[in-house]
Each structure stands twice: as C-alpha cells, then as structure tokens.
Amino acid sequence: MAFAWKKNFSYSKYASICSQTVRQALKPEIRSDLKGSNNVEFVYAKWKNGTQEPTQTYQSSDAEQQK
Amino acid sequence: MLPLMNTFRRVPFSPSFFKFAAIPRRGYAQAAQKNEKLILSMALPYRTVFDKVPVTQVDLPTEDGEMGVLKDHVPMVQCLRPGVIQITDESNAVSKYFVSGGFAVQQPSNELSVTSPEAFKLEDFSSSVVTQLLEKYRAEAASSDEKVAAEASIRVGVLETLSGALK
C-alpha cells in the first residue's frame, strides 16, 4: 500500500528510520568511511515561565552504533 | 516583433520630467529550453552521485509503483520507496543504487532530479549483515509495544527489499 508509513510516522521520522537501516546494512569498511556524516547532535533548553530550564543534549541513535 | 514592442518602458529620469530612462518592462517567465536527452542529477545531503549527466533511462521505485523514466517524460513529482534505482546511460551501461527513499522530480526541460538521504551501490552491502538485521527486527516487529513494532516493521520492509535486490 502506498504511503503506509503515514499511519504511524511523520515523513521525517520515516525517512530517518529507512536511512538508518540502509546504513546499518552496509559492509563495515564502507560504513567506517561515512564517519557519522548523518549524525545529529545538539544541546537545547526549554523555557518555562520566563526562566530557562537546564540544558539537555540530543544525540541521534546512529551515533552510538557508528562507534 | 510583437514580444519586442513592449520590452522597455520609459520612466522619468529624476529630477527632470523631460529626460527618460528605458528600463526593461517586466513580463512572464519564459519556459525553460527543453534538452535533447534526459539529464539526470542525483544527490544525497552529503554527496553528489550524478551531476547533470545525460542518460537513456532511469528506473525508479516510487510510492506509486516501479516506473521507468525516458526522455520527454511527463513532468512529475514522485516520492520514492526504499529500493533500487537503475540507470541506463548513453553507452547502455547499467548502474544500480539502493536508495533509502527521497524524491524524484521530472522537469519540463527534461531534467530529472533525484534526491535521497542515502544511496549506495549494491556491492557496498553485506548479505550476512542484512540477514542478521532481519532476524533482529522481525523479532521486534512481533513486539506488543505498538511503536516498537511499527518502527521495526518499516526496517524489516527496507531490509527485505534490500535482500531481494542483493540476490
């Protein structure tokens, strides 16, 4: 069925699941060449009532598997 | 003659009311020139695979089904499924890339633009790793947690397509 992922996921999430899976299936030597080119890592802080809450880090799950 | 008649309009050249400057009159955009051959550009976020290369045929795995694009294809925008893109270039050499999805846009100017998060040649994949991953994610797909199961079933779908392509 076309666009079956629409039921459960946003396109963005679906695309990242598919690309992570493709990267996992590569030969190890090709994989090491990529060196985390698609990793996403950032620090963010939420604001509440005009004050900043402590900063938190986000790291895409790919990062751990690429070590 | 007719298109040129309105090319320029006269505008007072300030501060004088009697001197005029000719500035180009704004018109509608011209249609792009149509290329003789199908021109393929295929890009990933971090790498360009093809940059305006003339090709004969491109086979795409779209959400609407497998489709083959030749020159003068009707303009379209297609969402791609994870699958194999097969490119037949002018010397009839065939190259295959497994893509994780993305989009394919055919312009009226015969330019086909394919964009994808990941694309690799079939030789870059390892069948044994694919089999291992399939086992792992098939088990997860049977999980009672809906989110885990849904994500795992997408991965299983990608891996099954990949293992079919690798045979």
TrEMBL record, chain A:
Q: Name one GO molecular function term.
A: proton-transporting ATP synthase activity, rotational mechanism
Q: Which GO terms describe its cellular component?
A: mitochondrial inner membrane; proton-transporting ATP synthase complex
Q: Name one GO biological process term.
A: proton motive force-driven mitochondrial ATP synthesis
Q: Tell me any Pfam family this protein matches.
A: ATP-synt_Eps
The record's SUPFAM superfamilies line, in alphabetical order, gives: Epsilon subunit of mitochondrial F1F0-ATP synthase
Task: Report the sequence similarity comment from the record.
Answer: Belongs to the eukaryotic ATPase epsilon family.
Kindly provide the name given to this protein in its UniProt entry.
Answer: F0-ATPase epsilon subunit
UniProtKB/TrEMBL annotation, chain B:
**Matches recorded under SUPFAM superfamilies:** Epsilon subunit of F1F0-ATP synthase N-terminal domain (SSF51344)
For this chain, one GO molecular function annotation is: proton-transporting ATP synthase activity, rotational mechanism
- Record Pfam families: ATP-synt_DE_N, ATPD_C_fung
Q: Which residues form the F1F0-ATP synthase subunit delta C-terminal domain?
A: 125-162
| Major localization class | mitochondrion
Q: Coiled coil where?
A: none
Cellular component terms (Gene Ontology): mitochondrial inner membrane; proton-transporting ATP synthase complex
ATP synthase F1 complex delta/epsilon subunit N-terminal domain sequence ranges = 40-110
Which superkingdom heads the taxonomic lineage of this protein's source?
A: Eukaryota
Keywords assigned by UniProt?
Answer: ATP synthesis, CF(1), Hydrogen ion transport, Ion transport, Membrane, Mitochondrion, Mitochondrion inner membrane, Transit peptide, Transport
Q: Is Membrane there in the keyword field?
A: yes
Q: Where in the cell is it found?
A: Mitochondrion inner membrane
- Which PANTHER family does the annotation name? ATP SYNTHASE DELTA/EPSILON CHAIN (PTHR13822), ATP SYNTHASE SUBUNIT DELTA, MITOCHONDRIAL (PTHR13822:SF7)
Family assignment from sequence similarity: Belongs to the ATPase epsilon chain family.
Its protein name is ATP synthase subunit delta, mitochondrial
